[in-house]
Amino acid sequence: MSNMAVTRHPPIRDQIAGILRSAIVNLEFAPGQLLVERNLCELTQASRPSVREALRQLEAEGLVESHNGRGTVVRVISAEEASQVYEVRAELEGLAARLFTERASAEQNQALRETLVELATAIREGKSSKHILTAQAEFYRVLFEGARNPFLERTVQGMQVRIAQLRATTLAVPGRAEASLEEFEQIFQSIAASDPEAARHAAVEHVRRAGEAMARSRTPA
Question: What is the pLDDT of residues 55-71, one digit of tens each?
Fold first, then answer.
């Protein structure tokens, strides 16, 4: 069979889109933030036409939106869409917690314990939101990996941008970080007790409470 390996580099547009997508996921570009083409050109060292193509690609993915007379902004998730994300997220994370309890290796259980320690340290020492979000993301990475269901893992990956934005919003609610830590600890305790159903329930309850925090964040003072 002939050599089928692809040797050329990805198109510049795709490379730029990847950079900007990562910045949105990591909340370096906040929801509602205006994306100035000139600044993006400087950031990526790319031409304006290439940046525009990348922005059109991200708009097709629903990550940014174009406003006449204003430019392109990072898309803000509506209350309805947030509710839909939480509904799906609760079921997926609950399933992951149950499967992890049933399937994870001793090494994966230890890795999950270590991510929880890192998260607790970040919250109790008052570290930055970005540090806390990174620790939370690592907890979930280990959780889904230990669930040993690649399709489930890929499904969640498709929601990561939305989930990251929502986590950042709820984390800004006073007291939410501390409350979420207790919920993460409950998930882990159920896993450590080898109770799949309790782990599933704890994960679902965590997402439910996160949804309540999101609703509070959108309520005018």
Answer: 999 999 888 999 887 89
